[in-house]
Design brief:
Length: 126
């Protein structure tokens, strides 16, 4: 079974740091709200990731290269790239991301970044 959603509305309404909306065999849809002054956290995945910003201002850092991002911007993170998304604006940075393959356990909700960091068991298991 598939999944349908008004993704822009869901992303803008999201108040959680991370919420997994849907997990398929080869991809996963997640919405995020990055608080003012916070970031996702520098990371490297062994998977591909697509990020789309719906509101707010920030910067994407991919292998040390910084790019200002805001509503409408997309970031494609290839597997193995060191990356971070940082909120540089005055409001929450609202985005959605697609992981291929899935990264987090289906149904994961982290209300805050601290909660996400403390959840060492949130990664997807095939």
């Amino acid at each position: 079974m598939g999944y349908t959603v008004n993704l822009e509305a869901k992303t803008l309404a999201n108040e959680y740091f991370r919420e997994v909306l849907f997990t398929a065999k080869h991809c996963q849809l997640v919405v995020m709200s990055i608080a003012v002054g916070e970031d996702i956290g520098e990371e490297i995945h062994q998977l591909d990731q697509f990020i789309r910003v719906e509101a707010g201002e920030g910067k994407a850092v991919l292998d040390g290269e910084e790019t200002a991002i805001s509503d409408g911007w997309a970031v494609v993170v290839p597997a193995g790239a060191k990356h971070n998304i940082i909120n540089t604006g005055a409001t929450p940075l609202k985005l959605y991301t697609i992981y291929t393959p899935p990264e987090h356990k289906d149904g994961t909700i982290h209300i805050t970044k601290a909660e996400a960091l403390a959840d060492e068991h949130d990664h997807f298991e095939a």
